[in-house]
């Protein structure tokens, strides 16, 4: 598969599961290419987007967002390009999603590599993340009441 074919495949898979009303958090390494290339790809993707700065995102300003945090339903989620050992509210069993590692890390607790190369080149929906996290052990530093 050529790089252009791979880009097309990723865009197609993204738009299969992301609607125009959805919001996606990209955990970095969106593209090594230029700002104009990145903007062209973004225009082809459904929904709105938040981009976290990865190790290969030269197209973003170096002051790009490093970490994203949000409570959705009863779940506090922390997104970062890199896998963290502890993260905000990890001691309360918050979830941590990351990229960078290409599926090569075996981590305990409520952590998951959401990079597309670890997920058959599809984005991970919130619903899927709920199922994934339900199957994981508690965080090692969970404060027991």
**What does the average pLDDT come to?**
94
Q: Tell me about the biggest sheet?
A: 4 strands, mixed
Counting helices, strands and paired strands, the structural category is: alpha/beta
Proportion of strand residues: 15-25%
Low-pLDDT runs of 5+ residues are none
| Broad CATH class | Alpha Beta
In whole angstroms, the N-to-C terminal distance is: 52 Å
CATH topology: Purple Acid Phosphatase, chain A, domain 2
Series of secondary-structure elements, N-terminal to C-terminal: HEHEEEEEH
How many domains make up the 3D coordinates? 1
What is the alpha-carbon Rg in Å? Answer: 15 Å
Strand order of the largest sheet: 3-4-5-6
CATH superfamily: Metallo-dependent phosphatases
In DSSP terms (H or I, runs of 4 or more residues), the helix count works out at 3
Question: Overall 3D geometry?
Answer: globular
Helix content: 10-25%
How many beta-strand elements?
Answer: 6
Q: Can you tell me the CATH architecture?
A: 4-Layer Sandwich
């Amino acid at each position: 598969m050529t790089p252009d074919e791979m880009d097309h495949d990723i865009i197609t898979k993204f738009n299969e599961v992301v609607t125009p009303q959805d919001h996606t958090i990209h955990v970095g390494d969106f593209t090594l290419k230029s700002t104009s290339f990145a903007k062209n790809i973004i225009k082809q993707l459904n929904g709105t987007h938040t981009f976290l700065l990865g190790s290969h995102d030269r197209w973003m300003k170096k002051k790009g967002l490093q970490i994203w945090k949000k409570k959705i339903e009863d779940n506090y989620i922390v997104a970062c390009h890199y896998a963290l050992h502890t993260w905000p509210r990890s001691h309360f069993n918050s979830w941590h999603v990351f990229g960078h590692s290409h599926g090569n890390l075996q981590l305990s607790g409520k952590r998951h590599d959401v990079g597309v190369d670890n997920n058959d080149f599809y984005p991970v929906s919130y619903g899927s993340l709920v199922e994934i996290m339900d199957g994981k052990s508690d965080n090692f530093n969970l404060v027991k009441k």
